[in-house]
Amino acid sequence: MAVSKCTRLNGPLIKQMLDSVDSVLFDCDGVIWRGDQAIPGAPDVINLLKKNGKKVFFVTNNSTKTRKMYADKMALMGFNATEDEVFGTAYCSAMYLKHVSRLQGKVYLIGSNAMRKELEKVGIQQTGVGPDPISGVQIDWANVPLDPEVKAVVVGFDEHFSYMKLNRALQYLNNPDCLLVGTNTDTRLPLEGGKAVPGTGCILKAVETAAQRQAQTVGKPNHFMYDCVASQFGLDRTRCLMVGDRLDTDILLGSNCGLKTLLTLTGVSTVADAEAHQESGCPKRLGMVPDYYVESIAELLPALQG
Predict the structure, then answer these.
(1) Mean pLDDT of all residues in the chain?
(2) pLDDT bucket at 192, cuts 50 / 70 / 90
(3) Architecture of domain 7-61+221-305
(4) Which end of the chain is more exposed for a tag (fewer CB within 10 A), N or C?
(5) Looking at beta carbons, which pairs linking 273-278 to residues 24 or more positions away fall under 8 Å?
(6) Does the annotation flag 245 for ligand binding?
């Protein structure tokens, strides 16, 4: 389909685009739901795509839930979704350590119980989840007890992140053979009403700065998240669509992997943001320009019902 980038998707073009893909990857928050409420029409879109023979997957940078927790949440909202269709950064981090790094040892985990569960499911033990209170003075901090079996520091979202956790990560990473893996680099988590809280990227940047190391990240826009899905389900990237609400994660992932991209305006990014990237002429920013955009994925419904 030879169309210009950032095209408003409507009318016959919707069916034409859907006919050109076999698989659809959806971001979650801001795309198919907001908070605990499904985007109106989103469950019908997902269910009809599957009924029409499309493969559907859910790719999220959120590391605070297991695949099962996501599948259970979607079931309550009326989505026809299974655990093996969910690819969150908790699961993808475990896949990266198991199959790419081939980690032999434990993980020092700055993260959630969901991350702990996904790591343990593939046989990787961890230490670090939960609060880590500080005591003593600086020389004590520099000589904090370390688990000799730890071979990687993994950083995800951690509501208990603290100076001592940062220090402990630094002490592990003083060993150049210790890996540093981050779930994602999102610096802010947008909330309803225009509010936001700090995201995993802030925690990861603190660890990188202290350790003077750069992490390998597994979440969007890194191609590893798509590779996780493609390797398990044999996807053809030329017949895949990535649907998201963020240009710097969702749309850039699609561009990085050669997928068609669709921006929905029910979340973070706007058409004005996309047009600014398009007009910049900067190669990296051009990767954040979607092929198409819609107000909401509910606009796909007529073509799917037809």
Answers:
(1) 96
(2) confident
(3) 3-Layer(aba) Sandwich (3.40)
(4) C
(5) 273/247, 274/6, 274/247, 275/6, 277/247, 278/5, 278/6
(6) yes
Give the pTM: 0.94
At 26, give phi and psi (nearest 5°). Answer: -115, 130
- Domain 91-217 in CATH 3.40.190.10: no
Return the SS3 of 37: strand
Note the helical H segments in 20-66.
42-51
In this predicted model, what pLDDT tens digit does every residue of 37-64 receive, in sequence order?
999 999 999 999 999 999 999 999 999 9
Half-sphere exposure of 189 (CA within 13 A, CB side): 18
Residues contacting 148, CB < 8 A, separation 6+: none
List residues with catalytic annotation. Answer: 27, 29
User: Helix, strand, or coil here: 243?
Assistant: strand
- Residue-wise pLDDT for 266-289, tens only, equals 999 999 999 999 999 899 999 999
What is the Cα–Cα distance from 59 to 124, expressed in whole angstroms? Answer: 22
According to the annotation, is 29 in a ligand binding site?
yes
